[in-house]
């Protein structure tokens, strides 16, 4: 599920600042290569024993990710339910309390990057 209207899509930040800000909110730079990275935040639904991951895609617009001075542009923000062993499933409905927690974390990150 793509999360629209986060205010993050299109923001830019250098890698060092983005890593630091994302970590403060609980995100981890998980998958990355020289020009792309994703930041993931695990959210748990204890009532249903399900795990969801909030994911932000980024792309380097200046430099490569091996440099802390590389400039990244934030792209899509989406959330999916973790499935074993396949990864994330994006079509399932997401409980409202998980969406609320995701929205709050995204707002916190937006403030740190502004």
Report the average pLDDT across residues: 94
Largest sheet: 6 strands, antiparallel
Order of helices and strands: EHEEEEEH
Helix percent reads 25-40%
Return residue spans where pLDDT drops below 50 for at least 5 consecutive residues: none
Compute the gyration radius: what is it?
A: 14 Å
Please explain how this structure is put together:
It is a single chain. The protein has helices at residues 15-25, 96-113, and strands at 12-14, 28-32, 36-45, 50-62, 71-83, 87-89. By secondary structure, it is of the alpha+beta class. Strand 4 and strand 5 (71-83) form a beta hairpin. Helix 1 (15-25) packs antiparallel against helix 2 (96-113). The longest helix has 18 residues, at 96-113. It is globular. The two termini are 25 Å apart. The model has no long low-confidence stretch (mean pLDDT 94). This is YugN family protein.
């Amino acid at each position: 599920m793509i999360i629209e209207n986060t205010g993050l899509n299109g923001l830019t930040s250098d890698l060092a600042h983005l890593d630091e800000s994302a970590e403060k909110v609980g995100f981890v730079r998980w998958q990355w290569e020289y020009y792309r990275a994703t930041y993931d935040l695990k959210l748990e639904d204890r009532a249903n024993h399900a795990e969801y991951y909030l994911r932000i895609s980024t792309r380097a617009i200046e430099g490569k990710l091996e440099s802390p001075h590389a400039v990244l542009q934030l792209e899509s923000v989406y959330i999916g339910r973790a499935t074993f062993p396949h990864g994330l499933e994006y079509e399932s409905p997401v409980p409202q309390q998980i969406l609320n927690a995701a929205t709050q974390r995204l707002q916190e990150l937006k403030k740190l990057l502004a």
